[in-house]
Amino acid sequence: MPVGTVAKGLSMEHQNQAPTADSADVVVVGFGGSGAAAAIEAHDRGARVLVVEKASEEHHSPTTALLAGGAMFGTDVDQTHTYLAACAGNLIPSEVCRSWAEEAAVLRDWIDGLAPEAFRMAPPKPSAEFPHLPGAAAIESSFGEFTSADGEWSKGSGAHLFDALRRAVQRRGIEVRYGARAQQLISTDGRIQGIVVDTETGPHELHAHRAVVLATGGFEFDDELKRQYLTGGDQVHFYGSRYATGDGIRMAQAVGADLWHMSNMAGRGVGHFVDTEGRVVNAIMLLDLKWVGLNDPVGYIITDRDGHRFADESVQAKLGHSFYYEMLHYDAEAGVFPRIPSYWIFDQRRFEAGPLTIPRYGSSGAAGYAWSDDNSHELDKGWIHRGTTVEEVAAAAGIADPSAAADEVARYNRACAGAKDPYRSATMDMTPLDSPPYYCVKLWPGGTNTTGGPRRDATGRVVHAFGHLIDGLYACGENGSIIGERYPGLYAYYSEVLSSGRIAGRNAARKRCPTAEH
Ligand SMILES: Cc1cc2nc3c(=O)[nH]c(=O)nc-3n(C[C@H](O)[C@H](O)[C@H](O)COP(=O)(O)OP(=O)(O)OC[C@H]3O[C@@H](n4cnc5c(N)ncnc54)[C@H](O)[C@@H]3O)c2cc1C
């Protein structure tokens, strides 16, 4: 293939270099959860597999390794299928939901078998996020457990889950090439023949005898894709892997792939801070500390840019996903998103109760930022505002009408004493904001990851914009997830990522038909 046909995707310094070449049966692009699952499955089906990863081994931090580390399962394929299809709305075809339901039924055993000496799943519990939807009773989730040095099993994280995947990959002798960024697919007459990677030494062609699997994650750190596809655009911020720049989306588009649900994601309000050196720290924000096992009652409200409350903040406190949609309200007359940013107001009780985020969680942790235990460093940096009155802190944070925020706090406090609250259905969990000084932090829509990308069929094969299947091209994980409108339940992304990785790997390992099948 002439170099000129692939040169556009390469870095400037390598554009005139002739590529070197080698090959495998299946080339997997991206070594996160979905790529590892695809590689393991393709290998176990008899394929010679090569994984390319754009991060160096030293800096490799796929989203999969950044906390959590559980999975969602289904106890009954038919019911799980019904539930997943109901959550997907009409974004994902029924047969694609079914393919996930079939994997979800066996996923727990598969994970337990990855590296049994190091990682296993805890007993599952019911976990459907929408228990009223049909089939919800079949949905359950469990967190992972890892063996510590003394041989005891403890609650694990995404890093432990990824360690189990890495062990399983290594045990099989599957080669992982780090520092190898896939730039472009090699396509001949509509058939995908391999990829071109940009390495330190120049462009390198990798030929895939059977298929290429794009497991490159989402587009959380590509501002242009966010601007064009997400409601809220580049004001939406993520705390996942910085390597998630939509590379797999662009590579698939370049060979004619259709894209699906690019604007869809399961989000929440997140912290977004920039320090004096320009370093960005995006962080999950804990309105109360129940999520990390502490039960100190604390008060909180969230207002829009004018100081008015607009929704039930306890949804955000519970880290549910509905509050995100409330934040995306658009005022077409004014041409603004009046709830971006929103303003979280709290008092000394919450400030003292513990860090506002989970230190070393997500990308802020991966980037080496350690949130202080007493929030003092972030107060000094101006990421947290403080005032002796609500009005003072609201003004300091930039709320347009600080007196409106003070009125909201007064009304909220009356509701805590028994008056009717416009947004919360019960006063039980409402603690007054009456312990000065007061604090305020800006919240932005965002979260862990995007889900849009190339459309796939039930076998993980990428679908062309004109409806036929692209020969030799598969996708999995966040790169065009098969989660549709609603997030089904605890650890659903992990479930989708591992299930869709297995589906893609299994089918990619099949020998090709001599002619392209459309
Ligand atoms: C802090 C945090 C908490 C989370 N908690 C949960 C949870 O509780 N439950 C849940 O279900 N999900 C959770 N998630 C989401 C879940 O972790 C992700 O959806 C999932 O891990 C994504 O897996 P992936 O394989 O698609 O992508 P990744 O794990 O990001 O892997 C993609 C890989 O591809 C590489 N890559 C990208 N472009 C290229 C290229 N051009 N060439 C070569 N390599 C490339 C990247 O460097 C990366 O290593 C959480 C995410 C975060 C950040």
Automatic annotation (TrEMBL):
Residues 25-481 form the FAD-dependent oxidoreductase 2 FAD-binding domain. Its cofactor is FAD. Keywords: FAD, Flavoprotein, Oxidoreductase. Signal peptide: none annotated. The keyword Cell membrane does not apply. One of its GO terms (molecular function) is steroid dehydrogenase activity, acting on the CH-CH group of donors. InterPro entries: FAD-dep_OxRdtase_2_FAD-bd, FAD-oxidoreductase_2, FAD/NAD-bd_sf, Succ_DH/fumarate_Rdtase_cat_sf. The keyword Membrane does not apply. Coiled coil: none annotated. It comes from the Bacteria. This is FAD-dependent oxidoreductase 2 FAD-binding domain-containing protein. It comes from Rhodococcus opacus (Nocardia opaca). The lineage of its organism: Bacteria, Bacillati, Actinomycetota, Actinomycetes, Mycobacteriales.
